[in-house]
Amino acid sequence: MRIISGKYKGRRISPPKNLPVRPTTDMCKEALFNILNNNFNFTELRILDIFAGTGSISYEFASRGATPITSVDGDMGCIGFIKKTAQEFDFDITAIKSDVFKFLEKNKASYDIIFADPPYDLPQKDFERIVELVFENEMLEQDGMMIIEHSKYTKLNHMENFSYDKTYGGSVFTFFEFEYDEEEVEEDE
Questions:
Q1: Where are the chain's structural domains?
Q2: C-alpha dihedral (151, 161, 166, 1), degrees to nearest 10
Q3: Contact, 133 vs 111, CB < 8 A?
Q4: What phi and psi values does residue 68 have, to the nearest 5 degrees?
Q5: 121: Cβ–Cβ under 8 A, 6 or more apart, which residues?
Q6: pLDDT, average across residues 108-117
Q7: Phi and psi dihedrals of 105, rounded to 5?
Q8: What torsion do the CA atoms of 23, 28, 33, 35 make, to the nearest 10 degrees?
Q9: What's the topology of domain 26-188?
Q10: pLDDT tier at 1 (50, 70, 90 boundaries)?
C-alpha cells in the first residue's frame, strides 16, 4: 500500500497481514482524489473516515494537508495500526475504536468530507442507514460531500441527497451532497 499524492507521495505503508480489511485500490484512490481535487482545497478540511480499515484514505487526505481527520473502525488491530502510522508520519488523525453505527448515532461533530468503505457484503439496509444517520444528525457541512465505496451490487442512487456515482472495476463510489433549500439560500444572502 502506498500514498499516491501530496507531501508523502510514493511512501509505502505495510499493514499487518492479519487485519480484516479490503483496502481501496490505488487506481480507485487516484480516481476518487481526482474528483475531490476538482471540488475541494484540502487544507484544513475536517474529514471523517468510517470503516477506516488500514487508514489508507485517511493518509491520502493527511498527505494533502487535510486536518483534522477522524478515523473510525470496529477492529482494535486496525485502530492500533492507524495510530502507529499517524504518529510515524505526524498526521493529525484521531483513531477511534467503535461500532460505526453507534458512532454515527452519537456523534455531534460535522465534517467537510465523510468517506465510508464498509464491507462489500454489508446488507443493503445498513448501507442506507449510513446515509440516513449522516443526514439526520447533520454531520455533513453544507458545502461538504459524503462518499460511500461499495460493490456494483449495492444501489444507493435512490437515497435522498444522492448526487452521482462512478464505477471503477468492481468498485463504485456513490457521492452525496447536502441539498440546499433555495428559499434558505436566498434568505442567507
A1: 26-188
A2: -60
A3: no
A4: -85, 160
A5: none
A6: 96
A7: -70, -35
A8: -140
A9: Rossmann fold (3.40.50)
A10: confident
User: Which pTM was predicted?
Assistant: 0.92
Grid coordinates of 48: 471523517
Q: Quick check: helix, strand or coil at residue 22? A: coil
Average pLDDT for 34-62: 94
Residue type, 107: N
Q: What is the pLDDT of residue 180?
A: 57
Q: What is the mean pLDDT of the chain?
A: 91
User: Which residues are CB-neighbours of 30 under 8 A, at least 6 positions away?
Assistant: 4, 5
- Residues across the chain: 189
Of 110, 104, 120, give the one whose Cα is nearest residue 53: 120
pLDDT at 181 over 60: no
